[in-house]
């Protein structure tokens, strides 16, 4: 036996505490379950190896930002092509970084929606074939469930029940989470998602794509009180969001200050960001208080925003709420979060079949709860 195989065998024995592998994913075995997670819902090809839904052995992400930057947004056809190029190298790297071979895996978890259909199909079809060849179970995962479970990859995850704000480029909503697979939707955006508003405002100002990071940085150089933009839907009667009006308000300001708005960009983005953050933080705190929950979380790409993290921590603290926020690396799209929720479905015996397919829209998520994906 060569050195590489010996080291891999030793590592597996360390994980399982015994020789050999018990490969049935039925929740009855005390042997750790090693899951390969795959994520290709938009413009990042990701793979990760996670143990028992909480211990990350590897996480690899191939970004397409450079490809889409010249177009000011994600081009679906280009995204699909880049996923095809990257999926095999990314999976191989994830396995290598984890010190494992494909035969060491117990199961595969892959994003099946919502997202760009062409992009989703690359990872989904790969996972089908990969698991079929290895004769191991696999499960299709709702991308939004993955984001919610990013907090369970941190050392101090929230106990059930808790309320979570999921804010990203394509989705913004508040959920009451009562178990690993049960979520009641309390409110969601009626038009633009928070991250989408960031990208569109950045485009108006010529700041490039993606807009979240550059606005977060420039806002620190501006005065958030100099330009006060509207705070839509900031009341206690609903937990829904609306950001299209705020986006329009910024656009109108630019139109009416054509001669000098370029000199005001830091103040414009600071005022815009403060409006978004005020609404998001207020809603999540009020939602938690309405349910008597003492724990809240923020997840998704927008959760990486420095000002949002500060604001929610401050507002939560003032209301005696414990705030849980994943590390910045786990806020954006990644495969570790897909493997994390996949573990809970698989250990309960839920798996996907070869006839299952992807879906593109958030319409699959309906009140009162997010359906378990079979």
What is the CATH topology assignment of the largest domain? Answer: Nucleotidyltransferase, domain 5
- Give the uncertain stretches in residue-range form: 1-24, 364-374
Class by SSE composition: alpha/beta
Number of strands: 10
CATH architecture of the largest domain: 2-Layer Sandwich
CATH class categorisation of the largest domain: Alpha Beta
Helix proportion of residues, in percent? 40-55%
Question: Main beta sheet, described?
Answer: 5 strands, mixed
Order of helices and strands: HEEEHHEHEHEEEHHHHEHEHH
Domains, number: 2
Taking all residues together, what is the mean pLDDT?
90
Count of helical regions: 12
CATH homology-level superfamily of the largest domain: ATPase, nucleotide binding domain
Radius of gyration: 21 Å
Largest sheet: spatial strand order: 3-2-1-4-5
In what range is the share of β-strand residues?
15-25%
Which descriptor suits the 3D outline? globular
End-to-end Cα distance: 40 Å
